[in-house]
Amino acid sequence: MKEQLTRAAALLRQEAGLQKSQGILYLYLLFALLYILLIRVLPPSWRQGVAAGLLLSDPTVLGFFFSGTILFRERELFPSLFVTPLKPGLFLAARALSFLVLSLLLSLLFLTGGLGLNYRPGPVLLGLVLTAPFFTFSGMYLSFRFRDVLSYLIAGGFLMTLFFLPLLELLPQWRIPLYLPTRSSLFFFRLALFPEPAQGLFPGDYLLAALIAAGETGAAYLLCRGELVRFTAGRGRI
Q: 0.85 cut: is pTM over it?
């Protein structure tokens, strides 16, 4: 157990160094500044809705595309990488955790800079913890399914368009008659930014949304892990 924890800590440090060396950390900080400026110039009545959309569409989705494109540079290393004691599940978890930390940093920076303290940090943190790994695992899964970056980006763009449909519910009198994974995430982000959605809710509503989001993330992890195992066994699409 101690050996596994030591290996996990070393892997997290490696992931953090990779993100810094490739400029991903600095891009997240740049996006945070841009979002602060965007929210600040908007009329006050628009700020919460735009912030909720940004919470869902950027801190989480940046992990989708960055995690996937990085794998295209690393895929030749996988067959030898997992001959070592490093397990595929630990590798995927460390990468998802590293992008989750960046998502939390970006979100809290732009929310505090743009809205001050006029939001509930609890639902924000819970929503990101349940959402960011889902997108990171999904991005990595797609990267194993395609031979080139262009095909991956096209498929990822289509998937993101589908996942973003619940954002239309931030507009007055819009309702999407379709269940999508991002709907549970939007539930928590709306709780964080709007006082009205919390009225009339029961503890079971929060628990149900959290269980659904956690189940979706778990399913994305299992799909991603299975594809990585097949890929390293020589049945991948490289």
A: no
